[in-house]
User: Fold this.
Amino acid sequence: MTASPPPLRDPEPLPFHDPELPLDQRVDDLLCRLTPTERVALLHQFTPGVERLGIAPFRTGQEALHGVAWMGPATVFPQAVGLGATWNDDLVRRVGEAVATEARAMRARDDRVGLNVWAPTVNLLRHPLWGRNEEGYSEDPRLTSAIAVAYTRGLRGDHPDHWRTAPVLKHWLAHNNETHRDTSSASVRPRVLHEYDLRAFRAAVEAGAVAGVMPAYNLVNGRPNHLSPYLREHLRTWTGQELLVCSDAGAPSNLVDSEKYFDTHEEATAAALIAGVDSFTDHGTDASITTGRIQRALDQGLVTEADIDTAARRHLSVRFRLGEFDPGQGPYADPASHAFDTPAHRALAQEAAEQAIVLLKNDGLLPLPEGTRIAVVGLLADACKTDWYSGTLIHRSTPLDGLRERFGTDHVTFAEGADRVRLKCAAGWLQVPHSEDDGRARDAEIALDPALLAGRTDLAPLTCGPEPAEFALVDWGDDTWTLRAPDGRYLSVADDGFVRASADQPGGWVVQETFALVGHGDGYLIEHRGTGGYVSVAADGVKVADEPEVFTVDVLERGEDAVARAAAEADAVIVVAGNDPHINGRETEDRGTLALPLHQDRLWRAARAANPRTALALVSAYPYAVTDAHHQLPALLWTAHGGQAAGTALARVLAGDVSPAGRLPQTWYAADSDLPDLFDYDIIGSRQTYLYFDGAPLYPFGHGLGYFSFAYEDLVAAREGEGLRVAFTVTNTGAVAADEVAQLYTRAPRDAAAAFALPHRRLAAHRRVHLAAGDSRRLEFQLPVADLGFWDVRHDRWAVAPGAYEILAGASSADIRLSATLDVEGAPIAARPVRRAGLAATGYDEQTGTEIVDYSRTAGDAVRPQDSGIGELLFRACDFGDGEHGVRSVAVEVAGGGAVDLISGSTATTITVPATGGVYDYAPHASGFTVSGVRDLRVRLRGPLRLARLTFSATDRPKETA
Assistant:
């Protein structure tokens, strides 16, 4: 750790040092003092200091998703999806404040700790198999926005001018797959864009607590997110303050290297800069590659000095708000405002972990009474897992720790459930040699990029000999296994290729502690997942090589046998199952199934067979389809990985010290067959999330039980100008004080819902309240009428359909206790004025077999058939005019070649399109098409073409063009 150097200062204070001057004036003063080269240098993540002006070096980007990460010990709060499960804006604001104060305190000791924090992640959890599910808050844009506003306000602080930290929202935009994440394109239709993805970002930006955003690796509608025109068209219109757009790591180079969107890095860098990327995170700490590209782009006329100044100004604006150039560096630099690992932070971590726990089912088993003899079993029963974006744990509480502390060690027994095995090959038994360990742990190391941490080579590698070692073998699913040595360390492979018992936990950017057992004759080959090599035996030790060794597995005890033995002797059993956040579902790796891994499935079944009084506690970063467990077990709970106080929190809930009141932030589906394809981003067309899902989920959005009941009464809903006032009363009818999460939903008029495929219901507001036994509270909500609306593709605008709206209050999206009807007046949504305005190809109501692509490299969208095959678009309610004023011809704007079929009732035409050249070479093609009245239009696309627009005319059939 290094102490922060004193701030560099010019001997004479300059205007930019004066905090009394307006921010823009200070930024301009400093900018004009920088040389062109110094301005370019501001555009890389690692910016050098300017000693002559007293400017220190600066780094954008400090991970702080649920605590300060990658910089050593810090308070670790529940994962982001767990914070979302609290449904508690105030709690999350306090968590953000604690994280920011720790960042300030840590920076005072170590100037490598940054204040431009890359958090939170507001990507919506539209698909539960996304590997980074743990990083988001919810599948719902309103809940995500509320939690994001709370967290960023805590991170920012409440000073009117100075910021405690400068939050950057991740990842702009529509990013929910790790598979091919830098080359895949999300097809996002206008309705999904405006009603879903943009809404997740907008509220936090409008609240004034966001310093910028980070574009995602993927493409949207065929265009890389780092070139997104929405940065200019939407993001920067939501606020009057400067926003700093920071690229994701390596993404600028991807524009050429993997995406091949441009031929040269100069073109790519220039395009990203013009689109709005201000800070380039590329090539680690080596800024010279990026600054060289920018300078060459300037020399080639691809960018201007004004473009560079715009980005530099945004960069400097953040630093001014952080107080860097103020005397004393602003109020948040005052050590008196710093706090680190305080009793208050520890209590807050426990409070957050308790509030994140969701009781999924309870047939009377919980809470456990005093004196209960408990068997706590399962692979996570004695684990307190961290994830890629966690800090290093200062305190650690596992479920076993928590239950022993709460119920007494003599009342709690434990069985992990790992298989105990020995491994043998031709050279003998696999052995772990004795090593003098210096106690160095991987997770205690600090690196700005933990992917750079190397595996340990200071320990002796495994050997083979006459005496066997006993290993704990765990199947985490998807042919991914871990092996743990008798001393508790995991087998791992370092850069030298040797296999050692050296890791405290699986981890790293490429996990080196996982293996696959590949059947081979009567034995197994042991494949190392990180390298793809096989475990083999050499004279100097066991290593990974191309030539595999055949091993036999001698099973000493199956995990389910140990679990059954412990369960049979207990009054109640708690099976703790779930995931390791570094294995099977994480950044770079999507899941393949909702199913609980078979090893853990066997454990809960064995526990239940031995003792029907068994509860399943799922500790995971994502939902599981545990339908059998739901039907066969009396109680189930879920919590995300809860941080440092996870075990204590779970024990207090199981004991009834805390009545659980967490609520699911996303739908738990019953089976994989309920899910659309991972790459299908059209939540409307594929019927995703609680908004559109037509089936019966295992557990609905917003679901969560408690130990006590609450009554809902006296719902009132009234129109007040451009808003709605809704109020109802919630009463704790139980015998003990407890929390309830009251949820308010709206449902559109039935005729509008059917005509426009509107959601089944939509979350409008929520509030978590704590009520003493017997107490009531009147909850009031103010809702803008506009929140009832949707994106009207007929007229390319936000619209509210008139009619009778249902106002629904309850305990979940499926547990509605009260309802009221409110009439909203207004003009009906008119038919599409196609003769006057034409049709944008992307403005369809339904589609099959198509995808949205880029109209050009800079802006606009078009539609093409998937895989150059056949696709179809449906445009409902097209007004072609009446009688003699009807349409006589149609023209299509198309690039590529193929055919466009248009069908409206009995009228049809086909326009054959000769190849136009490049994918951005559009040309008009026309045909006669006589149609009138209001009717639907089907447009069929055939072949490798892109359709941008259709225009209609009342003139006679023109001569066809080519």
Observations:
- The longest strand covers residues 710-720.
- The two ends are 70 Å apart (CA to CA).
- The first helix runs from residue 23 to 33.
